[in-house]
Specification:
alpha+beta; four-stranded antiparallel β-sheet; 6 helices
Length: 180
């Protein structure tokens, strides 16, 4: 039955022939899918395309996804959809891993005074309030980024002062809060 439907699918619709022959449409498409799997020519072609996908993926440093690999395949003369490339990548178990971009968070090129390193990596202190250290970090909130600067007593590791603002600009009058 299914061979007959397949042979005459250009003359009549598959749905109509299935209804007249009293077979399920999904059964026909399942049969056709299995017929496609049995074709040795298609298996060879699929293996060839998978090798090209793997080649493109590894040559890119494992950063190319299906759109870029699809572009490479088209350049190499293959007629294939981007969606099929994505499905084949899934079958091969390969997935693009984009390179992490470097984000500079410190501006070292400035004309401000650079203070000397007095501690020289010696972080053990014998008495309280002898050495204070400071740091600035940024925190993502629902309303945007906020900047938190802290001052810590190196002896007790207690935060002795802090300030928070929506920008990281230097101010003449600091809003630093101290707690002794």
């Amino acid at each position: 039955m299914y061979r007959f439907i397949h042979a005459h699918k250009d003359e009549h619709t598959v749905v109509m022939m299935c209804r007249v022959l009293k077979v399920s449409t999904s059964g026909y498409y399942k049969w056709r899918k299995n017929q496609d799997k049995l074709s040795p020519e298609k298996e060879v072609y699929k293996k060839e395309v998978q090798q090209k996908i793997s080649k493109s993926f590894h040559e890119s440093g494992e950063t190319y996804g299906s759109p870029r690999i699809h572009h490479d395949l088209v350049e190499w003369g293959y007629t294939i959809s981007c969606k099929t490339v994505g499905r084949m990548m899934c079958e091969l178990g390969i997935r693009a891993t984009p390179k992490q971009r470097y984000v500079a968070t410190t501006d070292s090129k400035h004309n401000l005074r650079i203070y000397p390193n007095l501690l020289n990596q010696t972080f053990t202190v014998q008495t309280p309030n002898q050495v204070w250290v400071a740091d600035i970090t940024y925190i993502r909130t629902l309303e945007g980024w906020v900047y938190l600067s802290t001052v810590m007593d190196l002896f007790s590791r207690k935060i002795v002062g802090w300030a928070m603002d929506d920008n990281n600009e230097k101010r003449k009058h600091s809003k630093l809060s101290y707690s002794f």
